[in-house]
Specification:
The protein is of the alpha+beta class. Helix content is 48%, strand content 19%. Bound molecules: adenosine-5'-diphosphate.
Length: 250
């Protein structure tokens, strides 16, 4: 418990720091991108400097993506709580997730017939999904199977709504599992991982009053389980039939 508390405090501190820096940093990156763009436009297309300008733009864009993640991570915006059907959110993000995963992976979703309703911020829930899927994808460079499962766990009173993301990838050692939620902890090497994926997920899950566990075996695969409190159907939610097909693609 003490370890969790320390972890939470560190997340909080890093979050505040990151939020402040990320705002300013994003503006600076905007200037860099715009200047590189103007310079590229002013020079002839076959000028040798064009390649350099393009890599400046790419690097700045990557930096901007990183600071966006930092901003979200630092929770600079208050969560907008709404009653969400976890199945529907999985369905809504499915296209995006398929694109993230690519063609060479087997992608399976197993959705519960009970309505897995949760009360949380939609963006946060999407973040949880996307980050877990990105990690699972990254763990399977040579292909494999990615399974998203939703369930209502009967004997779980506090947090019965379960979202699992399982992969048949490289797996994690106990040492990596222990540090996985630490902000900036990554095994992916400079320029590849930010080390913010799982800490973002951790932040979003605890904010929603949930829990998260990692089950992993090196060489076999990883299952990340997110447990969330179940929400009561809101009045207009009750009107909707339980098996509404996802009608919104992205
Ligand atoms: P990043 O993915 O940018 O490295 P994360 O916080 O998302 O940062 O993950 C931290 C580390 O946890 C990763 O570098 C990786 O070693 C490990 N990890 C996370 N998810 C998985 C997974 N599905 N399979 C194997 N290792 C994982």
């Amino acid at each position: 418990l003490e370890r969790q508390l320390r972890q939470a405090e560190r997340l909080e501190a890093v979050g505040q720091l990151a939020g402040g820096v990320a705002h300013d940093f994003n503006n600076l990156l905007g200037v860099i991108m715009a200047s590189a763009d103007v310079a590229a436009y002013d020079l002839p297309e076959d000028h040798p400097i064009q390649a350099e300008l393009a890599s400046i733009e790419r690097a700045a864009e990557r930096g901007a993506a990183l600071t966006r993640q930092l901003l979200v991570f630092s929770r600079s915006e208050p969560p907008q709580l709404e009653t969400l059907d976890l199945n529907a959110v999985v369905g809504d993000t499915e296209q995006l997730l398929r694109r993230t995963i690519g063609e060479d992976l087997d992608f399976v979703t197993r959705l519960t017939d009970d309505r897995p309703l949760v009360c949380m911020d939609r963006t946060r829930l999407e973040q949880i999904l996307v980050n877990l899927v990105v990690n699972a994808r990254g763990a399977m460079p040579d292909g494999g199977q990615l399974t998203i499962t939703t369930a209502i766990v009967v004997d779980e009173t506090q947090c019965p709504v379960r979202l699992s993301v399982a992969d048949t990838g490289c797996g994690m050692t106990p040492e990596v599992i222990q540090r996985a939620f630490e902000p900036f902890f990554t095994t992916k090497g400079p320029g590849k991982g930010t080390g913010l994926g799982l800490s973002t997920v951790y932040g979003a899950v605890t904010e929603a009053g949930g829990e998260i566990t990692i089950d992993s075996t090196p060489g076999v695969g990883t299952t990340v389980r997110v447990l969330l409190p179940r929400a009561e159907p809101s009045r207009d939610e009750q009107e909707t039939p339980p098996h509404r097909p996802p009608d919104r693609g992205r």
